[in-house]
């Protein structure tokens, strides 16, 4: 999960997210959450702190690009187009 989405979801559920080094230079808002403590499913008090570890991937931010493998069957993509 993207770190910003995790932070927002935690806030919506009454939790505070922080990195392993709260005074560190990297905010928890960027990257992908790869681990957390306490583990998922643990019951916590409202506004308890959850520590998350984030992977900062400097790779291409463009996402997955074509061509997809395996190639979709002929006509499969046309069925997803809006009518009109």
Estimated structural class: alpha+beta
- Strand-residue fraction? 15-25%
Gap between N and C termini: 36 Å
Number of strands: 3
What is the residue-mean pLDDT, rounded to a whole number? 82
CATH architecture classification of the domain at 1-57: 2-Layer Sandwich
Reported for the largest beta sheet, the result is: 3 strands, mixed
Q: What is the name of the CATH topology of the domain at 1-57?
A: Trypsin Inhibitor V, Chain A
Q: Flag low-confidence runs.
A: none
Strands side by side in the biggest sheet: 1-3-2
Written as H for each helix and E for each strand, in order along the chain, the element string is HEEE
CATH class of the domain at 1-57: Alpha Beta
Radius of gyration, whole Å: 19 Å
Percent of residues in helices:
10-25%
Structure, described:
The chain has a domain at 1-57: 2-Layer Sandwich (Trypsin Inhibitor V, Chain A), CATH 3.30.10. Helices cover 12% and strands 21% of the residues. It has 1 helix and 3 strands. It has a 3-stranded mixed sheet, with helices on one face.
Question: Which key features would you list for this structure?
Answer:
three-stranded mixed β-sheet; 21% strand; alpha+beta; Trypsin Inhibitor V, Chain A; 84 residues
Helix and strand arrangement:
Elements: H1 3-12, E1 15-18, E2 32-37, E3 48-55
Parallel strand pairs: 1-3
Antiparallel strand pairs: 2-3
């Amino acid at each position: 999960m993207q770190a910003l989405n995790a932070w927002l979801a935690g806030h919506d559920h009454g939790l505070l997210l922080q990195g392993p080094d709260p005074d560190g230079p990297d905010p928890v808002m960027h990257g992908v959450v790869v681990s957390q403590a306490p583990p998922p499913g643990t019951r916590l008090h409202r506004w308890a702190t959850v520590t998350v570890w984030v992977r900062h991937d400097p790779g291409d931010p463009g996402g997955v690009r074509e061509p997809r493998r395996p190639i979709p069957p002929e006509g499969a993509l046309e069925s997803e187009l809006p009518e009109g």
